[in-house]
Amino acid sequence: MKMNINALDRNEYFYGHKACAGCGGSLAVRAALKVLGERTAAVLPAGCMSAVGFNFPQLCFGNNAIISMFAGTASMLTGVEAGLRRKGHRDFHAVGFAGDGGTADIGIQALSGAIDRGDDIIYICYDNEAYMNTGIQKSGLTPYGARTTTTPAGANIHGNIRPKKNMFEIAAAHDIPYAATATVGYLNDFISKVEKASKIKGTKYIHVIAPCPTGWGIPVSDTVEVAREIVDCGLWYLAEYENGEYKLDRDPGEFASAENYLRRQGRFRHLTDQDIHTIITSRDRKWEKIRKEWK
Amino acid sequence: MKKFLSGDEAFAEGVRLACPEVISAYPITPQTVVVEKLSEMVENGSLDAEFIHVESEHSALSCAIGASAAGVRTFTATSSQGLLYMAEGLVYASGGRFPIVMMNANRATALPWNIYGDQRDSLALLDTGWIQSYAENAQEALDLALMAYYIAEHRDVSTPYMANLDGFILTHTYENVDIPSPEQAKAYLPPYETDNRFDFDHPTNMGFSAGPDTNFIFKYKEHRAFDRARGIITEAEQRFAEIFGRRYTGLLDTYLTEDAEYVIVTLGTIAGLCRNIADELREQGIKAGVVRIRYVRPFPNDEITTALRSAKAIAVLEKDISFGNAGTVYTNVTSALHWGGITAPAYNFIGGLGGKDISADDIREVFRRIQTGTDRLNWIGVNENEH
């Protein structure tokens, strides 16, 4: 049976932190740790989740956890896993939770190295699509058109001019044993992927969309709804890479309105019809490929 | 057992005897021989360790920190640009009180590129909270590998340790080295035990944030650990002498300083040549002496004062320059002299940068110039009109 929310551990492993209301990242961490359980060592780089959870003497992780250097999530995970194994431990999980900047920008080298070595770790990227902890600056995973504090939207440039880096396929291109995309909007899908990852040997990469109400300009009550809508409108997809094959987990068929998804968020409010057309064209091109190649 | 080994190979033998469980390293000249040897030892089963092929020095140290957080003994090695690339991890490891042992092959820092030895890499990172030793020969290098773990992992210290070897001059020069037996090493070095680690029975949060209310207390404790390290270094050397029969002399090594009037203070391999020239001068009736600093952190403030009591003039000879001031060893020594109330003039001599040879004549010239008085800062081999 697939893991679902009702079957989750009642214990809390990420509790008493000071994340903002409606934080998608803290939801992802909380749920994933409930799946992985108490025999888990978590590594979190500098970023939102470490900033809200590790303030001495108020330490919020119920399992073993450590902040890594910003660029060092994966490399520290490697060391933690090797060290715990050398200590004679079996049946434990070494899991990393890094944001989009910590993964796709500053941490990509260490992540690539860990996948290349085949280290037995789970790496979860909670993607809120900008450097939220430092005040909403553009990262390599900020989507086209988004306004951030370093990609201001003005008359000349309409926010971020580059598309998201494709981390899922970059991870897969290493021929990683398991990679998956997810969203906190479809939590059962996410936690079942975490559970699946926890049973696979070698390096596992899960990329979970985790909206940030502060950075996205949405009400704090809309996190989950927006995290669903991004999948329903086709601007994100739920997929897996396993045994050398891509697999699409959910084909929304006819897309929900991407324009509605974009227009409800403050970060996209400046977009022109032409900008939205560009985003939809790019989405359709991607889906044409996905539907043809990812069965 | 005696073997003809380079400094790198000798250090690798010392690491093998210390039995680290996780080794993470990235290659850089002139460190490579150490990691090659350790790889061979892991392959042939004479060292039971995880050898992790990281993709950068930053990851080498990050990985070692992770393994140390899991509670195991770790090792890494680097040099020059690699050490600088690790810099963030250096303060991380020390702040987290992870007693990682690292060998650093002292090498010039780019630009201009240069693979040869000077000490600008490690001395630039003196303030990162690592114990720093500087070996003079291959035997000392091997012995320091063992003592490094004893000192770093001691509960009163719990501080990472950087063992420095002069690039090429020591790392690639062969000497006869006595290799202790594994049984002796085991008797010397207890297994690594710490509470500063992950524990599934008592989960812990490590590497956390500490705000203005508490941060300074952590820093104060780090500093206090260095004070305690002074005593633990002595203890480590006494134990070492008991088991292996070789004696070391703590934070510094003195030569003829009891009545010396003209003393060169230096560190690393150049000390041997300085002693030869001191002998030569003694034959001419000049009371020359040499101080070799073995540990730059913790710094031998009191020991330097004691050694230089009879000095009329002092030269600090180093392969380093802190641009806009003087050599870093010099500023450390002069602060020790000030604290110790020594008023003899101290002159700084900068030499050996980028592997430039420091000759016997250069050392004679240093002794000559401090007898007559010279500039506060002197560049060996530089001709101001020409350069």
Main attributes of the structure:
heterodimer, A: 295 residues, alpha/beta, Rossmann fold, two-stranded antiparallel sheet, 11 helices, 16% strand, globular, B: 387 residues, 2 domains, six-stranded mixed β-sheet, 19% strand
Structural description of this entry:
The complex is a heterodimer of chains A (295) and B (387). The longest helix of chain A has 21 residues, at 273-293. Helix content of chain A is 37%, strand content 16%. In chain A, 56% of the residues are buried. The two termini of chain A are 22 Å apart. Chain A has 11 helices and 10 strands. An 8-stranded mixed beta sheet of chain A has the order 4-1-5-6-8-7-9-10, sandwiched between helices. With 387 residues, chain B is an alpha/beta fold. Chain B has 2 domains: 2-244, Thiamin diphosphate (ThDP)-binding fold, Pyr/PP domains (Rossmann fold, 3-Layer(aba) Sandwich); 252-379, Rossmann fold (3-Layer(aba) Sandwich). Chain B is 40% helix and 19% strand. Chain B has 13 helices and 16 strands. Chain B has helices spanning 7-18, 32-43, 57-69, 80-85, 87-95, 120-123, 138-153, 182-188, 215-244, 271-283, 301-307, 328-340, 360-372, and strands spanning 2-6, 22-25, 50-53, 74-79, 101-106, 131-134, 161-166, 174-178, 205-206, 252-255, 262-267, 288-293, 295-297, 313-318, 346-350, 377-379. Chain B has a 7-stranded mixed beta sheet, sandwiched between helices. In chain B, strands 10-12-11-14-15-16 form a 6-stranded mixed beta sheet, with helices on both faces. Chain B has a two-stranded antiparallel ribbon with strand order 1-8. In chain B, helix 1 (7-18) packs parallel to helix 7 (138-153). Chain B is globular, with a radius of gyration of 21 Å. Chain A binds chain B through residues 38-39, 41, 43, 50-51, 53-57, 59-69, 71-72, 74-87, 89, 92, 109-110, 112-113, 116-117, and chain B through 21-22, 24, 50, 52-56, 58-60, 62-72, 74, 88-89, 92, 198-200, 203-211, 214. Strand 4 (64-68) of chain A pairs parallel with strand 9 (205-206) of chain B.
